[in-house]
What does this fold into?
Amino acid sequence: MSNAFAREPSWDPRRFPPAPRAPRAVQTLRMLYDPQGYGLALREQLGPVFSLRAHPYRAALVCAADLGANREVLTDHERFVGGHGAALLRPAVGAGSLICTPPPRHLRHRKLLLPPFHGERVTRWAERMRELVRAGLPDLLTGDGVAVRPWAQRLALDVILRVVFGLTDPGRVAVFRRALTAFVAMDNVAVLFLPRPLQRDLGPLSPGGRFARLRATVRDLTRTEIALRRAESGSTGGAGRVGGTAGRGGGVAGRSARPGRAARDDVLSMLLDARDEHGAGLDDEQVLDELTGLLLAGYETTATTIAWTLHLLAHHPAERDALIADLDAGSDRLLKATVRESGRLRPAVYYAIRTAARDTELAGRPVPRHAFVAALFPPVHLDRRLWPQPHAFRPARHLDADPAAYSLTPFGGGVRRCIGVPLAQLEVETVLREVLARAVPAPAGPPEPARLLSVTLVPARGARVRFHRRLRPGGR
Ligand code: HEM
It folds into this structure.
């Protein structure tokens, strides 16, 4: 596997922002077990920009932890560049995925990928989404305590298989589901965080070997699907390769070259047809990398957001009952505010990552060229200067006020802001509507603390909730 950290500068306290004194292992463990508390404590102790000397970073992760520093990292694309920072994921998604693509190719790619995720287009998936949610409800509404996150992971995977991969045949869905579930499971992807020698393929029983085989299975299946889809439509993949020799500079229209093939509305079909203004499309390997990237970017994140939101509602009966009443009255104002508040208090993603393009400064602290730089979301989302009573779950705070720019960034920001926002919002809102029309979430244990799993902020025990069936279900 490739070495994601080859360019990282070595540690030198004079060239990096201040770091905690604790040993690396202690910093790593505190980050894993109390990511929100530790982030706030380090800002208090070291200021708005500090170095975290934690695994898997060999030198340090430079952390921006207040509004001004975060805004700078997310918006100054000349100094803080996206793409290289996600190199850790490269063995999983492939170098061609949007997430791993640095500028200037990033912008061209992004324009090809954006159209299927456009807000209005996404609503055409609403009915399919509702069907998938309804099919899963019996497993959630058992009357016993249920861990919502694994439930939501199954749902999120099925949504991606239908709307991104465009699979409809139940047999093929089952084959993909099995392969992808094993591939994206944390015990598999965790290999990317091991020291490099342990990532090697040392046979089927080694973590690296298992990862390589699961990856090959997923890629073979996806390749076959792409070939089938191309055969179905007679599509050849375009005259050139985006990011290759076809065309230079200028914008990419992201338009479809084959408007006649409108019957399929999934992301894969749209990607196969997408062309830039020079007629260049994505070749099969690029499409393959994009699909894998979309899967990894969209699966854990959406499932974790659903889990946190239902868990928070279960533990806040007044806010839960107000939301149910508002939905019953046919409004979605409180629904949107609730999802925002959940994304503030428990953002599924802990940070957005960039690398420094040159030796520079952030909030007056030195940052060496090629250092990994993260905009941490929780210290800003929980900053009392921005959010009164920051630790309270109060959806109503969003009703009549738009947040200050970059004070609420669960989807990141700038030119690399999440492209899946409309899809994710549709999915989270659909689950909440369907569940709350039939059941009332209640605690199935104490409120769960957040843990850090790779870059995801997950509930410690899977977000356990007990759902009580409503005597008079809401009529949605
Ligand atoms: C609630 C669910 C989701 C959350 C919280 C979330 C969050 C994020 C965050 C924080 C980033 C990094 C942004 C940055 O670097 O500034 C990101 C990037 C991205 N997300 Fe999402 N995401 C979600 C769902 C999805 C879905 C459903 C998809 C697609 C199926 C998706 C596709 C992507 C892609 C492709 C990128 C990379 C964008 C780029 O580098 O230009 N995400 N997401």
